[in-house]
Amino acid sequence: MSRFLRSTSARLSLRFALLYAIITALVLGLSYHYADREISDWVSDQLAEDAAGFASLYESEGLDAVRAKLSGFAGFNFEDYRVYLLQDPEGKVLAGNVDAIDWQGSGSYVPVNAIHAEKPRYEDVTGYLLHSVQLGPNRLTLGTSTYFLEELREVLGRGFVAGFILLLLAGLLAGIIVGRRTERRLTQISATLKSVALGQLDRRIPATGSDGDDLARMADEINRTIAQLQNMVESQKQISADIAHDLRTPMQRMRQRLDVLLNAHDLTPEIRTDAEQAVEIADDLIETFHALLRIAQIEAGQQSARFAATSLAPILTRIEDAYSPVAEENGQTLVFDIEDQDATVQGDQQLLTQMVANLVENALRHSPSGTRIEVALTRADGSVLLEVSDNGPGIPAEERDKVFRRFYRLEKSRTTPGNGLGLSMVRAIADLHGAAITLKDNSTGLRVLVRFPAGSTSVIFRAPAQAGMSDSVR
Asked: Distance between CA 381 and CA 360 in Å, rounded?
């Protein structure tokens, strides 16, 4: 939630909610003002109509009829709601329920203490709205208590405040919902772009079904761009595979011709030496073509059907047997620490062996004499961990994203054997198993971590950098 509140979506949502609250407050405030004025005008109009009715009664039936009607009001005066006072020209009270009213005729409102009567006023009454009319020489004053008007105002005020709070909460909730939805969409877009940057070109932003949405249109454009990029990359890979396939047969024929040439008995020493060098070059080229074709097959997922539960300990044991003599010959130390003998993952045994072998061989090939290379198989937090580390020269941080490219080699590695495809094959195998590879420092040298999540049917491989692992790097 705290991350959402710091997001642009949250800030926009809160700003719109604040704007919505201000507009709502203005609308409700104006509504209250006009409603209050309408109610006050309606009460004043009622007083005016009553006064006009008494004037008409006076004209038609005389003063006694007016006095009789006013006397009848005494039994229907709930909580001192109405006051009335009929006075002659000298101010003598002719009829009414009050003794006097301190009012000069200016304005329509008087406080309750301006009304004089023997009976005390109802305690909640604070004032009256008045209206007077001349009945011949006499004067009739009618008044209505503001008690019910104030009660109505209070009810309206509470209603408007409650309505404002509800609308504010509704607007805030709607803003948060829209903001969270927008944040989720942006997170999906960001996650997809990060995956594409890591080489997962098959990733797409999930469709939402709302074509008119700006984010949906942007997601469609991004998906189309990724699809075009994927097609371009696949075309390049296919071209490489086609070239490797088409040239492999002529190279093998040339290799056979060179063998025939070497078997000839009349070769001079110089020609025999040149022929042997040509054979070595041809073998390197054929090996390169085989590697390209194998990478293409792996990237096409042709071997994923062979996935099965695979024990990692026997793989490491075979690699230890194969590469320990090489390390000893190079003056290097190769140490295997298989702590978890039961570690099993879902994958292709041959490909996993190839991946680990490439990493170990790369460390051996590009590290100097005296280097210590460690391979460990452990378990942590429910995950199986395969770690390969060395104290060799390492890989510069700015080069670590590049070493998985085909034929890419560090400048210092161009004089060493290799074709620059070792780590490309590692990446292809890792991708086939759902793996993610990273390269990191190992204090002195580099370190590779391969993480296999517990209970997963696919391998997740994390390779923190090695000091020279794979012929494609160093």
From this structure: 25
Measuring CA to CA, how many Å separate 82 from each of 115, 120, 129?
A: 11, 14, 10
Q: Is the four-CA dihedral 105, 106, 107, 112 of positive or negative sign?
A: negative
Domain holding 220, by residue range, is: 214-299
- Strand, helix or coil for residue 204: coil
The residue written with tokens 């770690």 in the block is: 387
Q: Are residues 291 and 392 in the same domain?
A: no
Contact 319, 357 (CB under 8 A): yes
Q: How far apart are CA 377 and CA 337, in angstroms?
A: 6
- Say yes or no: 312 and 441 in one domain: yes
Residues 314, 382 within the same domain: yes
What are the Cα distances from residue 123, in Å, to 83, 129, 148? 15, 17, 13
Amino acid residing at 325: P
What's the CATH number where 310 sits?
A: 3.30.565.10
3-state secondary structure at position 303: coil
In three-state secondary structure terms, 335 is strand
Least Cα distance to 46 among 148, 126, 142 occurs for: 142
pTM: 0.48
CB–CB of 155/117 below 8 Å? Answer: no
Q: Which amino acid is residue 157, in one-letter code?
A: G
Written as tens digits, the pLDDT of the chain (474 aa) is: 555 556 666 677 777 777 877 887 888 888 888 888 888 888 888 888 988 998 998 899 898 888 888 877 655 554 567 888 888 888 898 888 888 888 876 668 888 888 887 776 667 778 888 888 898 899 898 888 887 777 777 888 888 888 888 877 887 787 777 777 777 888 888 888 888 876 677 888 887 766 667 778 888 888 888 888 888 777 766 766 666 666 667 777 887 888 888 788 777 888 888 888 888 777 777 777 667 677 776 766 666 667 788 888 899 999 999 999 999 999 999 999 988 888 887 788 888 888 888 889 888 888 889 999 999 888 877 777 888 888 888 888 777 777 777 667 665 555 565 666 777 777 777 777 666 777 888 878 888 777 776 554 444 333 333 333 344 445
**Residue with tokens 């090489």, as numbered in its chain:** 326
Tell me: do 316 and 259 sit in the same domain.
no
Check whether residue 96 and residue 141 sit in a common domain. Answer: yes
Q: Are residues 76 and 13 in the same domain?
A: yes
Phi, psi of 54 (to 5 degrees): -65, -35
Rounded Cα distance, 167 and 184, in Å: 25
Residue 423 and residue 405 in contact, taking contact as beta carbons nearer than 8 Å: no
Q: How far apart are CA 115 and CA 93, in angstroms?
A: 14
436: buried, middle or exposed (CB in 10 Å: 19+, 13-18, 0-12)?
Answer: middle
